What does this fold into?
Amino acid sequence: MAKWAFEPGHTAAEFSARHMMVTHVRGHFKDVHGTLNFDPKSPTGSSVEVVIDARKIWTGEAARDEHLRSADFLDVENFPEISFSGNQVLS
It folds into this structure.
């Protein structure tokens, strides 16, 4: 099984969210750390663990980013990280 580490300088978690039912806001988190364990001969045994620094959200609009960091959305003061782990792979 191969193990890869996500390099924060080369990895981003990107998103797109509908805004006011008119347009989409796109953004990303750049500070992403984690690992991917993958065996091409047995993909169902793969797993991933990711930690994202929620304080580093970027949408291209500073005031919107501050609002997204607030308790109205991400509440980064109390929850500075977003973490994900998974081990279910569909083949």
Remarks:
- Residues 62-69 form the longest helix (8 residues).
